[in-house]
Design goal:
286 residues, alpha/beta, 2 domains, two-stranded antiparallel ribbon, 7 strands
Length: 286
């Protein structure tokens, strides 16, 4: 029975899409073809498929994700939802007790803002002043289950797994230069650490819609994407669509008022995380 020997557990908007794309280039690494299967938190929950059709709810279906493994040494799966789900570590340990766990963490205030702009860019939320959004939803951000409380959620994993099986990287290091992070991660996974992936492209960036007409066309039910697919070969079409999509929005820095509020919420958790990881996270507190 083939099951993963490593899991990317988070966090959402922390650079995991790029991380997975780079991992997938390594000849000795197999990544599950379904992203965010959520198996370890959705087993037996058929209702989960009503919301997310791609969710895997049975062990047989989960094993099927790895049917194409052909001798790769590192076999991986990614589900960011595992990170802050209280039951995930226990479920993971029950099925794959010797698994290696990888987390990519980002300044929680910046991560929250990036998540908001992602939903805006997809047309899932209206454009609004983020500071006002934070104030209106302050209890959501303060909720102990909120993904931004990294120490709280990681502590749960350290309670279930030996620290030697957990590798935590910082988004800020990864985005500055992915190569040393990837080299260290390859070594952690037990594959050739000297393999050099192409890390020029950054995947799944987000921002606030700028060119609204273009953005509406791109996010409307597949109008532009369908046209591009018909006119261009698959890879060229996807490249062109991606370029058009990212031209439709612009990067706007996190408003300072929102940063101050969110940093205040996460301050105590960040200080504890420093101790757990042995890393200086003072930049997250400034």
């Amino acid at each position: 029975m083939i099951l993963p020997n490593f899991l990317i557990i988070g966090v959402k908007k922390g650079g995991t899409t790029s991380l997975i794309k780079y991992l997938d280039q390594h000849p000795d690494i197999f990544m599950a073809p379904v992203r965010s299967s959520r198996f370890f938190i959705s087993e037996g929950d058929e209702k989960a498929k009503e919301v997310r059709p791609h969710v895997v709810t049975t062990l047989g279906e989960y094993k099927g994700l790895f049917r194409d493994v052909s001798g790769e040494r590192a076999i991986g799966e990614n589900s960011n939802a595992y990170f802050n789900h209280p039951g995930a570590p226990g479920s993971i340990r029950r099925y794959v007790p010797n698994v290696k766990l990888v987390a990519l963490l980002r300044n929680p205030a910046e991560r929250a803002y990036s998540s908001y702009t992602m939903h805006v860019s997809r047309g899932q939320k209206p454009v609004d002043d983020f500071s006002s959004v934070v104030k209106r939803n302050i209890e959501t951000y303060k909720n102990p289950g909120n993904v931004g409380f990294y120490y709280r959620h990681l502590r749960n994993y350290y309670d279930h797994f030996d620290p030697s099986r957990i590798k935590v990287y910082l988004f800020e290091d990864f985005i500055k230069d992915p190569r040393p992070v990837m080299k260290d991660l390859f070594a952690f996974l037990g594959v050739n650490k000297d393999f050099i992936p192409n890390t020029l492209k950054k995947y799944n960036p987000s921002g606030i819609p700028d060119k609204m007409l273009l953005h509406k066309l791109l996010t409307s039910p597949n109008i532009v994407k369908t046209a591009v697919k018909k006119l261009f070969p698959r890879e060229a079409g996807l490249f062109l669509y991606d370029k058009l999509f990212h031209k439709s929005y612009k990067k706007i820095p996190l408003p300072e008022e929102a940063r101050k509020i969110l940093t205040g919420i996460y301050r105590e958790d960040i200080l504890k995380l420093q101790g757990l990881l042995g890393r200086d996270l003072s930049s997250w507190l400034s």
